[in-house]
Amino acid sequence: MTRIGLYPGSFDPPTKGHEDLIRRSFSLCDRLIVAVAVNGAKEPLFSPEERVAMLRTVVGEEPKVELRTFDGLLADFASEVGAAVIIRGLRAVSDFEYEFQMALMNRQLHPGLETVFLVAAVDLTYLSSSLVREIARLGGDVGDFVHPTVSTALRERFAP
Ligand code: ADP
Fold this sequence. Notes:
160 residues, alpha/beta, five-stranded parallel β-sheet, 5 strands, 41% helix, binds adenosine-5'-diphosphate
């Protein structure tokens, strides 16, 4: 039986922290669906399609990974794609409360759906998309934190 993992997020934009989590997830599932949330509460910098295209470049030719966008409830999307496990990242204690609540709610909505938390490489745990956006907006170099394609996209987006 194929074990499908679902890694949902905003990925606005994808960072090396996301990339690290994607690669770590391979040991947990046979197939990984990386799903870009369309209806995040925040005003996104990149469209869902742009984020999927960036993820495609970041992930490269990896037959295990499927990239999708999703709208609506994560628990419903997980059922639709037959995911056995939701994969999320934990960076600091500050992530915990929200993630804990989401994991419990998703299991309530879809019994049997488990959430697994992965911790990124120690040098990436301070990384977030919002921090990367902020640095890029202020003209800083984000080359250490994102794929070169993402770095270029950010530069173009914030070009005066
Ligand atoms: P969301 O808006 O759903 O939190 P993000 O794109 O910010 O979407 O994050 C998606 C997932 O990846 C979250 O579980 C987040 O904790 C995790 N994540 C993001 N960056 C890192 C990182 N540097 N290390 C570990 N996990 C991370």
